[in-house]
Each structure stands twice: as structure tokens, then as C-alpha cells.
Amino acid sequence: MDDPFLVLRTCGHSHKNRFISFFTTNLSEYGAELMTNEGSLLIFSLKYPPNSPLLNATSLLSNLRSSLPIFSRYASLIFLTTSPPCPYADLLADPKLSDPEVTLKLAKTSPELKKSLINDLPPSVKMSPDSSSCTHTLECVSTSSSPPKFYYSLTPNPSPLLLPPPPSPPPICRSYYKLSESLSSYNLLHKKCIDIGSSPGGWTSYLLERGVDNIICVDPGVMEIKDDRLVHMKCKFEDALLDISSLKFDVLVCDANVFPEVAVGFLEKTIGIMEEECLVNVTLKLTNGRWEGEEVIERIKVMGGFDEVKVEWLFANGRKERNMLLRRSKKIS
Ligand SMILES: C[S@@+](CC[C@H](N)C(=O)[O-])C[C@H]1O[C@@H](n2cnc3c(N)ncnc32)[C@H](O)[C@@H]1O
Q1: What residue stretches are annotated with the Ribosomal RNA methyltransferase FtsJ domain (predicted)?
Q2: Which residue, among 280, 215, 269, 264, has the nearest Cα to 242 in the 3D structure?
Q3: Which residue segment(s) compose the domain that 143 sits in?
Q4: Can you tell me which atom of ligand 1 is nearest the CA of 237?
């Protein structure tokens, strides 16, 4: 199996460093190494470790699939290829181009580039717009510099590395991306959930998509989605406490516009109604820029008996937001 390359063009420069650390961390098992970092274009080389047969194209795709909502929002292009993206001169030297068995299809690209490529490629290169009759796909990406630099790569068709299209339709609220980024790798099927600060319903719709059994949504605002599994308590969390005190939840999420101390206070009040095995996801809104974070997190960790606590700056978080994820697993008695 040929080792793959991951090509990504970010939307704007501000997300570039986050993508670099995201891939070098998330794809460290594949030895992700940054080969090209030009303008908004990033190219990583990856390796299937020879002694780990499970780390193959299928597992790489499933790893990336869980982050599709991030890519669809913060990258204008992402694809995997089995040939190293190269300049035009190197593409012309590729023996595949003169192989009579090879028929190329151009991957989606700008109409101008498509036209010039069709005109410039040697006439011996066979091309077809029809996927079923072509043996390879020619990908072309450009940097955002002026003048742009172009990189080309040839991937066999059908590609073993095809990423599915990003999820659609677009979510009703951009907050959706925060939860989808944080919880993508957790099993949410049949969970009982509570969503504090749920209006207009981005987080709730994500949880429903992931197959939860039911959700109590607490927010004085309007919920823009309807679902049989959803109950909306149209009030502040402080006023809902009595009504929910007899319930039990597996998942608690909170994106309410409140100071982190208040959000953590909400958690302290709900620990008693969480199942032993539970997941909690809270946006910490550092609106006044001041927060003695470490101490409070340690307190909530000990008090709630959580064994996993992660505070991170998600792609989808605003400048003064951080995401806190807490997990408590079942104690073995
Ligand atoms: C950023 S929005 C939440 C967006 C939501 N996560 C989504 O995906 O649609 C913050 C919400 O917090 C709610 N909120 C603020 N204080 C609250 C409180 N004490 N209890 C419940 N909701 C509160 C506001 O009404 C607002 O709708």
C-alpha cells in the first residue's frame, strides 16, 4: 500500500497553526510530517506503520471522518492522495502520463486552471470527464500567494482514500461545530442528555443526530428545532433545578452565556443527577479575561470523581472561549 499525503487549504491564515498541531497530534500514529507550508496550503506526508496492520487506509479515513465538520468549516479543500504533490515540471516527468493505459480525469478545480491544463498537457495524455472510464484523477492545488504556486498529484481511480462529502445541510447555529468537534469520538447512542443554554438548538441538533434517546433543553430563548425526543424548559437553569432533580442524565452539555464560575456552579448542582458513567461538555466563556481556571477544574474533578478532564481551545471556539470536557467512567467494584 502506497503511503498517503494529506493536502489541505485553510480558510484564512488564522487556522493554519491549529491545523498543524491538530494533524501532528491526531495523526501521530501515521507519522504526520509537514512537507509544505505555503500561504494557506499545507501538505503532510503520512506513513502506514509496517508493524501495525490496523493502521491502514480504512482506519485513516475513519479517523478523519469524525472531523469532517471541522474541515468543512475551516478548510476550503482537503484530500488524500497516494502520489506526492509536485510542481508541473515533475508532473510532466511522471511516466504514468505517457502510459497508454492511463486516462486522466481532472479533479474539481477552477474553470481557468482546467482550461489551461487541458491545453497545456501533452496531446498524448488521454483525458476523460467520465469517472468510470478514467484510471487516475489529477488533483491540482494552488497556494494563495501572488503569483500562486501549483502542485499536482495523480491518484488511482477509484481512490482508496476518498473522503466523504462534508455533512449537510448546514447547522442552524455555528455553535454546532463546537460540540461536534469535541464529542466526535464518544459514543452517544441512546444517551439521556441535558443541554443548558440550548437555544437556538445547534448543540441539541448535534446530539439528536448522534442518536441520543432524549434531551431536556433548558433556555429562556426559543428552540428552532422540533423532535419527539426533545423537551424544552423555557426558563433559566436556576429555575429548572427543582423540576429536573428527580431525573438522571448520561450527558450534560452547557454553552450558556455565563461566567465560567457560574457554569461550574451549574455542574456542582447537577453532579447528583448524573449517572455514574457520564460525560460533561462545557464552554468556558472567559469574557472578562480573568479566571482562576486550574483551581476550579481541580475542585470539580475531585468533587465529581471525574477521571478525565480536558480543557482545550477548539477550532470552533471564539478567542475568549475554551472547551472543558469531563468524563467519569464506571467504577469496577
Ligand atoms: C451561545 S447561546 C447557546 C447556543 C447553543 N449551544 C446552540 O448550539 O444553539 C447561549 C445561550 O445561553 C442562554 N443562557 C444564558 N444564561 C442562561 C441560564 N442561566 N440558564 C439557561 N440558559 C442561559 C441564552 O439564552 C442563550 O440562548
Answers
A1: 173-259
A2: 269
A3: 5-156
A4: 20
The distance between the two most distant Cα atoms of the chain, rounded to a whole number of Å, is: 77
Question: In the chain, how many domains are there?
Answer: 2
Task: Specify the ligand 1 atom closest to the Cα of 199.
Answer: 27
Predicted confidence (pLDDT) at residue 160 exceeds the cutoff of 80: no
Give the CATH number, domain containing residue 274. Answer: 3.40.50.150
Q: Are residues 181 and 305 in the same domain?
A: yes
Residues 112 and 239 occupy one common structural domain: no
By CB atoms closer than 10 A (0-12, 13-18, 19+), residue 177 is: buried
Phi/psi at 64 (5° precision) = -75, -30
19 and 71 share a domain? yes
Q: How confident is the model at residue 289 (pLDDT cuts 50, 70, 90)?
A: low
Out of 183, 217, 219, mutate this one to test ligand 1's pocket (max ligand atoms within 8 Å of CB): namely 219
Pocket flag, ligand 1, residue 142 (CB < 6 Å): no
CA–CA distance, 4 with 43 (Å, rounded to integer): 11
Whether the predicted pLDDT of 6 surpasses 70: yes
